[in-house]
Amino acid sequence: MDAVVKRLIKEIKKEGDQDAFAELVDLYKDKVYQIAYRMTGNGYEAQDMAQEAFLRAYANIESYDESRKFSTWLFRITTNLCIDRIRKKKPDYSLDAEIQGTDGLTGYSQLAASQNLPEDQVVTLELQEWVQQEISLLPEKYRAAVILRYIEDLSITEISDVLDLPENTVKTHIHRGREALRKRLGNA
Amino acid sequence: MTMSCENRYEILLDKYLDGEINQEDRLELFEHMETCEDCAARLRELKKAVMLVQSSSHISAPDGFTESVMNSLPNQKKRVTWKKWSRQHPFFVAASLFIILMVSSLFSVWNEQAGGDISVQGSRNVAIDEDAGTVTIPEGETVEGDLTVRNAKVEVEGEITGSLTVINGEKYLASAGDVAGDIEEVDQVLEWVWYHTKQIAGDVFPAGRESKD
Ligand SMILES: [Zn+2]
């Protein structure tokens, strides 16, 4: 995987090879989309953010340092974009929180409706909607740390690289995010 | 929950959940939780919250995501653009290459002809020097009617009663010389190429084919 990624990036850097870039998008699209979806809490914004992340990666590929992990660089672009987007929406946050929660439901609700799932699985989907809704209510810094730690399964060191924060700060963000989720999800 | 729980055991709980607790602290924490229901409940709730987040099913990018990204890329570098464009328009590429090849071969044929034989139409009263590539109408000589010379430099020292046409050459009119009619120099190469290109184009682009692509 790493060798493949290195080769693709060389080709992109050398001649802007778009076929190589398409392969790279295919390799990372699910992870990037997942981060964007968990951060923004809705499918439209997730697609928008994930796409923008890849476009920026392509435009700035020269600034990517090949001695570091490509995924770290790509995830940093993604989380920064999402955090910016969330902050821009802040002014009508109280109103948004509800809408955002509802938007977060659409993906799962549609899935449940379209696939005609048995009842116990629909319950699982409802539970997942609820979890996503609670994640969406976390302050964006805690949200990013929690998503990278518990959904993307990154180490504290990797998260500190992605978010460009000291490891202790990352830990504090995870602790606070975890504590907020405990209050909302812990006694379900 | 006491103040000491909030400080000391909250920190130990976080360390425990981060997988960074040492054996001594771990024993102390679990011993404490045997008597402190608050801290024990807190640990259960934290574990449950983490478990719920971790069990969120993984979401994949929507169908057509890669295509959508690729279609939004800014203008490609030229080389790549040409590569992509030529893949989409193979007919034009083939036709253009064909024309380029044909025109260049026409030029080489032309160049051979340009160095070809001198020909004179209209009079025999001229001096032809093949080596120098000249046709001379000698002083005192009169050409009746029109004269056409190909592939040579024409020196008019005598007279021409009609017109002089020089094809692929140049004329030189001596002070004594005289041409009663028009003098025309024709550089045939452009007309010739144009003529042949039209013929080729007719073969390559049969009527109606061009608009289709
Ligand atoms: Zn306690």
From TrEMBL, chain A:
Family named by the database record: Belongs to the sigma-70 factor family. ECF subfamily.
Recorded hits in Pfam families, A to Z, give:
Sigma70_r2, Sigma70_r4_2
**What range(s) does the RNA polymerase sigma-70 region domain occupy?**
24-90
Q: Which UniProt keywords apply?
A: Sigma factor, Transcription, Transcription regulation
Q: Where is the RNA polymerase sigma factor 70 region 4 type domain?
A: 129-181
Entry-linked Gene3D superfamilies: 1.10.1740.10, Winged helix-like DNA-binding domain superfamily/Winged helix DNA-binding domain (1.10.10.10)
What name does the UniProt record give this protein? RNA polymerase sigma factor SigW
The answer to whether the entry has keyword Transcription is: yes
Q: Which organism is it from?
A: Salibacterium qingdaonense
Which Gene Ontology molecular-function terms are recorded? DNA binding; sigma factor activity
Q: Does the keyword RNA-binding apply?
A: no
GO term, biological process aspect, one: DNA-templated transcription initiation
> InterPro entries per the record?
RNA_pol_sigma-70-like, RNA_pol_sigma-70_dom, RNA_pol_sigma-W_bacilli, RNA_pol_sigma70_r2, RNA_pol_sigma70_r4_t2, RNA_pol_sigma_r2, RNA_pol_sigma_r3/r4-like, WH-like_DNA-bd_sf
PANTHER family the record matches: RNA POLYMERASE ECF-TYPE SIGMA FACTO, RNA POLYMERASE SIGMA FACTOR SIGV
Automatic annotation (TrEMBL), chain B:
Q: Which residues form the Putative zinc-finger domain?
A: 11-40
Which InterPro entries does the record cross-reference, listed alphabetically? Anti_sigma_zinc_sf, Znf_put
Keywords from the UniProt entry: Membrane, Transmembrane, Transmembrane helix
Which parts of the chain span the membrane according to its record? Answer: 91-110
Instruction: Give the family, as the similarity comment puts it.
Output: Belongs to the zinc-associated anti-sigma factor (ZAS) superfamily. Anti-sigma-W factor family.
Name of this protein: Anti-sigma-W factor RsiW
Provide the taxonomic classification. Answer: Bacteria, Bacillati, Bacillota, Bacilli, Bacillales
